[in-house]
Fold these 2 entries.
Entry 1:
Amino acid sequence: MDDRFSNPWRTLKTRVVYDNPWIRVREDDVIRPDGAPGIYGVVHYKNRAIGVLPIDDEGYIWLVGQYRYTLDSYSWEIPEGGGAEGEDPLEAAKRELREETGLEARTWRTLGQAHLSNSVGDEAGIIFLATDLVQGEAEPEGTEKLELMRVKFDEALQMVLDGEITDSISVIAILRYAIERE
Amino acid sequence: MDDRFSNPWRTLKTRVVYDNPWIRVREDDVIRPDGAPGIYGVVHYKNRAIGVLPIDDEGYIWLVGQYRYTLDSYSWEIPEGGGAEGEDPLEAAKRELREETGLEARTWRTLGQAHLSNSVGDEAGIIFLATDLVQGEAEPEGTEKLELMRVKFDEALQMVLDGEITDSISVIAILRYAIERE
């Protein structure tokens, strides 16, 4: 491989500084690309971020509202959740959609993938488009207190453009679908 | 305010478990929305993520390639960097664009904002569109070993749609500009 694209970092030592069921934080002693010594604190995510954009036959989507503890503010987002390592992301997507909205979908496809915050963490997100929807009963998890909103897709797109939806997975899902439907 | 949108979490105790120049990780003892006790590990980002989409008069943009230590893989992205708390994000954007590409821009506007990973962290990103470009000399930081690529905007958009660009800030910037130019 062309040397320009090979790893210019050298890891001298690594130690875990924090661990919980969702993340593991480590600090590495490194030699940086310019040859100087340094440290790198890396947040490893134990789950993959799963997002689902559910669109019904009338062009409506579902948004989930919840208070985000990390931001200390309320956030409207597409249905999302964590998919464990080893779990099929599509199965996780089906579960999260059902738990948060009660919806089931007959048709699924991948809408996009992203690394959410690659300067500090390794979190990977995958987004599915869910169509041919059937309504059932929602079953939120204990850590979630959710509101549901059914809105026209164009209204959700406007919420992204106006900065009213800021969650990165939701922003990517909605922008991407807006482009693909053209 | 409608009680449905108020904070359903209660913080009992908080302690810092890791701190470096870029992030501070804390673990809180909490009462969850369902009333059960739990913990929440929160990654606080000391810098805001700044992204710049530089577009020249011929419809070309600049991508920066670098090896991402967190992912152990190579990544093509728009010019990005960190803006310290208290620093004007636009000034940080001008500095990052100049350092990474040598470009200066006469016209700037905000292209979007996002919270990159709100289940675990509070990282906020802001993206600027930079136009009326003038080429100067790049000055990368010691932690960076960068490649530059000038590509047609439509080619970059295709790289996003094909999953060749996965960095969330870059994905959001490129999708959003694709919609706004319509």
Entry 2:
Amino acid sequence: MAVNLFPPENLLPVDGVRLSAVSAGIRYQGRDDLVLMELAEGSQCAAVFTKNAFCAAPVIVARDHLAVASPRYLLINSGNANAGTGEQGLQTAKATCVELAKLLDDCQAESVLPFSTGVIGEQLPLECFQNTLPSAIGALASDHWAQAAAGIMTTDTVAKAISRQVELDGGVVTITGVSKGSGMIHPNMATMLAYVATDAMAGQDTLQSLLTEVTNETFNCITVDGDTSTNDALILAATGQSGVPIAGANLVVFRQALQEVCLYLAQAIVRDGEGATKFISIDVEDAGSRDEARAVGETVALSPLVKTAMFASDPNWGRILAAIGRSPVENLDVSKVTVWLGDTLLVENGQPAASYTEEQGQQVMKRDEITVRISLGRGDTKASTWTCDFSYDYVKINAEYRS
Amino acid sequence: MAVNLFPPENLLPVDGVRLSAVSAGIRYQGRDDLVLMELAEGSQCAAVFTKNAFCAAPVIVARDHLAVASPRYLLINSGNANAGTGEQGLQTAKATCVELAKLLDDCQAESVLPFSTGVIGEQLPLECFQNTLPSAIGALASDHWAQAAAGIMTTDTVAKAISRQVELDGGVVTITGVSKGSGMIHPNMATMLAYVATDAMAGQDTLQSLLTEVTNETFNCITVDGDTSTNDALILAATGQSGVPIAGANLVVFRQALQEVCLYLAQAIVRDGEGATKFISIDVEDAGSRDEARAVGETVALSPLVKTAMFASDPNWGRILAAIGRSPVENLDVSKVTVWLGDTLLVENGQPAASYTEEQGQQVMKRDEITVRISLGRGDTKASTWTCDFSYDYVKINAEYRS
């Protein structure tokens, strides 16, 4: 029941990237749960990982491997997070890389980055990898992006992927990305995996700073339930196969396209949020700083009372005010706060707007995409936060996930 | 469906306090929704109010009145919060005090403290007060604590009240208190009202410091949904009618009894949390500071994933670890973290305990009172946080509250 999110179409291959998805029976039966992504030699990678102190085994291994070698293969399984699995889990994560490298010419284990998503606290069955890695290698092809997007899903109901092409000085470059995630979604990463590849050419430093900047305005601005995961990872790979460099004037154009891809992939996660029936944007304006705007946006977006009112299509704007009022903003002057629901003025200078009628509010709340706009009257900075509503199905999905 | 919470019994009158509860038809029909509490001349009051920047009109008026006069009457209505009601709401809150004072000899409007709880954003109907204040005054009696506890309820399902008597140097003193609250419950107050009275004798400074200390260990350690309200207030009144002073050795004994009363009233709110089926204690030990212990406790207590797992009686301890891992604690060393579910060791030194079995976890999770004990291995400070689980009924109650 994702909100205005549809299966990916017209995905474009990226020169230098081949993918495959196979059914390894790690947890799910009868669907792909193991994805392999091959990057041409000479590719550069940038990465962002979860900030959760209890990070999962594959995150530790991927970080270590990134520090010592250039990645050639990304090995991603769904169904089991290999988190909270202690020393044994760490050994298994390393072993999956070793197993893959053994099957390949000229690939060392450190050139493989492992990723896992799924249930926490169960050991990852290595034999599932041993049994299916040969067929995963055999199935590698450049037009398997849609299969990869489907293979990394857990509680997702719709696969998430998008392509963009932009004309740069030197030629056309392609960006294609996939993501997954539905619950445990919160800024600073979540049970969220995303892989974006381009055939543009860039050094690792350029890629990493681009990815960090763009992440702060996209993936770090979404929240479903405030829970961040042990496994989150976002990878940006540039194969350089187009020969078109990301530098000079190209940088601005490429950044914009990358931002569009990441925004789509991030918002897709919210649209497919566990139990979501509405897609909600909290736009905070006239803040003293971006942090302040984000803090207010996040407080409103995470309020269970706001989220249940959204689910009920109830313009219970008092809950929005109460959430703004408890946001961690020093000396908030409520007499300068103005709030709109869609285009309808709700609150003006901290007081209910004289023009507001309940009917206006209900008209907006009936929609499946709702924007709450909040002006703090403290400065000229703005930031958006995207979230979904809180429904019976959220509880159902999370109460029954393991059973 | 409150968790091990039963209607109050054996409430003791407090010399110098008379109460009444009447049906004013403010929102609810056929039940009391207006409570009047009279304090004998010479009583002292301490108060704690919401920190929400969008505080309600009665909170502003009560604060103002406390600054200029000694309170003689507390006037509390349920069904309408008089919050988000702008200048008109402020005038109405003041007018309710004026109306009451007009009906009394030797009482000025400033000696009345108004309190409201209920729906936000609707104007409070003054005529309901005008019509019923005479009968509220006529009904004042010292044995109406149970009626007062019932009259201040909103989504509460059980009235909350308790009495304690302690023998002090100089005689026996009584403490009786009532509270209400069910949703929008979070540290630093919530849609929570509590009124505690004693016939002990104390100056305002002593009372206020006692109340602040005790609040930090009781009312500020509960959370239902992370939302704090615009209306929270906690009042401690000492009538002094017993002639027994709270000073010297008496201070310690009185403080302990006050703490017990406040702990009961605070935990009662969690036990009656919206949709609650379980009462959960998060005990964080070996923290570097109390703030750190509270931060971890609150992060775990507020995690929708932990709360839905509790509802499902699912020992999905990975979610507890993930919540600890994202707590705002600098440089958390996960290899020093140990976690128990009840008496069952779950995680030892950051790794799943070898002795743990799923059956053990399920035994604990079946109970309706569950303790999660977390040792951080960073110091010797501890703190508890109390919360409830997250059920279908939480969503139902909050999605349908206004309809």
